[in-house]
Amino acid sequence: MVTPPPNVTGKLHIGHALFVSIQDAIVRWNRMRGVTTLFVPGCDHAGISTQVVVEKLIWKSDKLTRHDLGREAFVDKVWEYKNEYANAIMGQIRRLGASYDWTRERFSLDDMLTRATRETFVRLFNDGIIYRSNRLVNWCHHMNTTLSNLEVENLELTGPTKLAIPGYPAGEKVEFGVLVHFAYQVEDSDERIVVATTRIETMLGDTAIAVHPDDERYKHLHGKFVRHPFIDRRIPIVTDAEAVDMEFGTGAVKITPAHDFNDYEVGKRHDLEFINLLNDNGTYNDNAGPYSGMLRFHVRKQIIEDLKAKGLYVDTTSNPMQ
Asked: Considering the entire predicted model, what is its pTM?
């Protein structure tokens, strides 16, 4: 029986003492019944919890990031931290009197467990049970890491709100809580389709305009294309009853599969191109054409001005949002 490992992020608390006591009681009861039972101690791998703690420590002491140190040196730092705090944790468990088989103590970065983990992943991959794929993630350009949904704090906005963004110049604020309306020019036509978005800068990654198949206003445009105003790209007009509400807005929706969870599903259904616009540091990459190298929210400001210059900007309205 392997104990669920405590995270190597400090010392144990009353919750740890509780689960160790319960497990030890179960193990001792089974031994009394004549069942051969091994109670094996372990500590957490250097996953997000340990990694973040170590990152904060090296930043406070030396103003360095894990990228400055490099992988090998950073792993050494993790081991230093583990050796300090895991020993304290194991000492606490010993004082609780838990009847572990201490000869089998393991840490998840031990060579044996690392080899076993790698072997398991390779077997699962070869058997088709796990696979690699592109997915949308919550990327923090300031910490340069992916955040889980649990680590994202949602802020409810009732309307236009200016917020400071980490990594941007002091005093600079970005406006949220608005809906920007702009037009796409239909190819080989004088007609335009107006769409709206809370993140105008993502229009550089648009790969479709979606309309409801039953919307009479757009039936003559099914299967046709619009032209992107800033990048040499033809964007198809697709029909999608799931993604489009005919009664909301103009009934036409811009689709950016690589930067929106709902659009991601539309992209899968219609086999659209997925265009990632962002570099890890929050600047736009070469897919953004003339906006390459600019910070995302600087693109937001500039693109509105450029839409106005082309006569494609329509309006900005208040929009309660998260």
From this structure: 0.73
